[in-house]
Each structure stands twice: as C-alpha cells, then as structure tokens.
Amino acid sequence: MHTSSGLSISSETLVNLAIDNNSWHAANMELFAPTLCTFTFNGSLDPKIRGNGLSSVKQVKIDASQFFASEEHALNLLSWLPSPGNIESLTVTSPTL
Question: Which of the residues 15, 37, 51, 58 has the least number of beta carbons within 10 Å of its own beta carbon?
Fold first, then answer.
C-alpha cells in the first residue's frame, strides 16, 4: 500500500522480497512480514525502512551503492536488519560498506 508518508508492505504470507530502489527521492518504507525468509535490497540508502515482525528472515542481501554515504545512512542500514542471531546469510557489497 502506498501512503502519503511512503510505502507500507504488510503480508502474513510474503516469503521473498526484493526492492530495487534507484531513486534519490524515494519514500520511507514500512515492512511487516512475519514469514519473510529472504530480503534483497538494491539501490540508494536514502529511504528509511522500518520493519517489525521480521524475525523469520534468514537471508539478507544489500547492494546500496551510495556516493555520499554518511553515518546516518549506515545506521539506517543496520536498523533494517532483524535480530542478527536469526540471520543465516548476510551479503553486503563493498560499496555499501
């Protein structure tokens, strides 16, 4: 669902989610998907992704090439992740870091 404050994704059955965001002016995103197993993100770090009910995520892939990365962007990146103890595979590209 697209709201005035951004994009909201809520699904009890969503298993795989890939977001390709190459817009510098992307909206904020909220994610609720308690059965999500795989999360892939490609694009700009500008949007803030907030999520809950993500404890089932086992595989995370992030390729967020950012030419003007800041500490704020890095903290946003870390805030996306569910409990690190539940993740079995984490791939973050070197430009993202």
Answer: 15
Q: Compute the distance between CA of residue 26 and CA of residue 28 in angstroms, rounded to an integer.
A: 7
Give yes or no for a contact between 82 and 51, defined as CB atoms under 8 angstroms apart. Answer: yes
Mean pLDDT of 22-40: 78
Q: For residue 19, which of 82, 52, 61, 76 has the smallest C-alpha distance?
A: 61
The answer to whether the pTM exceeds 0.90 is: no
Q: Residue 85 — φ and ψ, nearest 5°?
A: -65, -20
Q: How many CA atoms lie within 13 A of 63 on its CB side?
A: 6
Q: Checking DSSP bridges between strand 59-63 and strand 49-52, what pairing results, if any? A: unpaired
